[in-house]
């Protein structure tokens, strides 16, 4: 009898903890689009064995424990001190977590994310996204990451208290994320060795190879046929691989990648439209303008004047 009462109490306690975690995440998701960023500590219990597509670029920092998950079909092991960047639109499946798992989650609007990463090449971003990076093995580096998140907490508190400070806070968040990206880039360079991680499944490796090739060639080549020929597979096979890994076909991935890079250049550089035509190898300005408007709803000049980021 007493054991039954104890079990009932435990179940209610676990449910209460889970409900509290879900409530915190609901508040987090509500705040994010309003202020452009939001941060939260979470055990991610409610995501275990539930596929999820990220609506915002998110940065995870593992505070304790371990997690096992897939991002766009690739398996990862996430442990204490590691950091991972998950781009908007990525599909994640949390396979399992240890009982002591806890993470810090930072979500970013497209505007803040693109501003923070504008100083980095597409190749660099491709190499550091969607994979865990082991944090520094000394106290100074751990304190550096902690300090970044402390300052983010301060910015979030400030914007909650004084809404007129929101733009000031967003600009500071951009600088903080930029510093974090520089740190992750340095971690990656130190991690690199001749014994690179081997991707075991052929289809996952093919999608990985396609994404790498895309970062190298998207300015010159945007046809599915080119990438299929380069990978020595059919366009049908490439589309199937992309659909399985990301939920998008190859052409959608190519266009999305190109549009994001065009938006970054338009918003954070003074390049002329003709320079964009030359850089991205479009036939002429008219063609580029139609291509951009078809995917964003804005002409090049409208986008540059309004300075909006388009989903």
In angstroms, what separates the terminal alpha carbons?
A: 57 Å
Q: Tell me the domain tally.
A: 2
Instruction: Tell me the strand order in the biggest sheet.
Output: 1-8-3-6
Global mean pLDDT = 81
CATH superfamily of the largest domain: Jelly Rolls
Write up what this structure looks like:
Helices cover 58% and strands 15% of the residues. The radius of gyration is 21 Å and the shape is globular. It folds into two domains: 17-25 and 36-191, Jelly Rolls (Sandwich); 202-306, Orthogonal Bundle (Arc Repressor Mutant, subunit A), CATH 1.10.10. By secondary structure, the chain is α+β, with helices and mostly antiparallel strands.
Summary?
This protein has 311 residues and is an alpha+beta fold.
Can you tag this structure with a few keywords?
Arc Repressor Mutant, subunit A, 2 domains, alpha+beta, disordered N terminus, Jelly Rolls, four-stranded antiparallel sheet, 15% strand
Give the helices and strands, then pairings.
Layout: H1 2-35, E1 37-42, E2 52-53, E3 57-64, E4 66-71, E5 74-79, E6 83-86, E7 91-97, E8 102-108, H2 110-117, H3 122-128, H4 139-161, H5 166-191, H6 202-217, H7 224-231, H8 235-246, H9 250-268, H10 273-279, H11 285-296, H12 300-306
Antiparallel strand pairs: 1-8, 2-7, 3-6, 3-8, 4-5, 4-7
Helix pairs in contact: 2-5, 3-6, 4-5, 6-8, 7-8
């Amino acid at each position: 009898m007493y054991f039954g009462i104890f079990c009932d109490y435990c179940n209610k306690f676990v449910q209460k903890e889970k409900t509290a975690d879900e409530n915190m995440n609901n508040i987090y998701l509500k705040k994010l689009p309003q202020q452009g960023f939001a941060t939260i500590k979470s055990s991610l219990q409610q995501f275990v064995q539930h596929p999820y597509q990220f609506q915002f670029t998110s940065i995870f920092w593992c505070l304790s424990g371990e997690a096992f998950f897939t991002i766009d079909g690739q398996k990862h092991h996430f442990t204490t001190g590691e950091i991972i960047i998950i781009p908007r639109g990525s599909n994640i499946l949390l396979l399992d977590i240890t009982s002591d798992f806890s993470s810090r989650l930072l979500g970013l609007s497209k505007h803040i994310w693109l501003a923070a990463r504008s100083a980095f090449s597409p190749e660099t971003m491709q190499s550091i996204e969607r994979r865990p990076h082991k944090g520094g093995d000394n106290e100074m580096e751990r304190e550096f990451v902690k300090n970044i998140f402390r300052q983010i907490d301060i910015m979030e508190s400030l914007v909650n208290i004084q809404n007129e400070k929101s733009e000031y806070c967003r600009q500071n968040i951009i600088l903080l994320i930029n510093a974090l990206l520089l740190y992750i880039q340095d971690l990656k360079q130190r991690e690199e060795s001749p014994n690179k991680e081997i991707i075991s499944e052929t289809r996952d490796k093919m999608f990985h190879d396609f994404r790498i090739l895309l970062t190298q060639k998207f300015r010159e080549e945007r046809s599915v046929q080119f990438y299929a020929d380069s990978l020595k597979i059919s366009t049908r096979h490439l589309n199937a691989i992309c659909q399985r890994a990301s939920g998008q076909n190859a052409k959608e991935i190519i266009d999305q990648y190109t549009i994001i890079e065009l938006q970054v250049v338009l918003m954070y550089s003074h390049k002329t439209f003709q320079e964009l035509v030359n850089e991205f190898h479009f036939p002429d300005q008219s063609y580029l303008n139609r291509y951009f408007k078809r995917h964003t709803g804005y002409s090049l000049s409208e986008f540059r004047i309004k300075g909006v980021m388009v989903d």
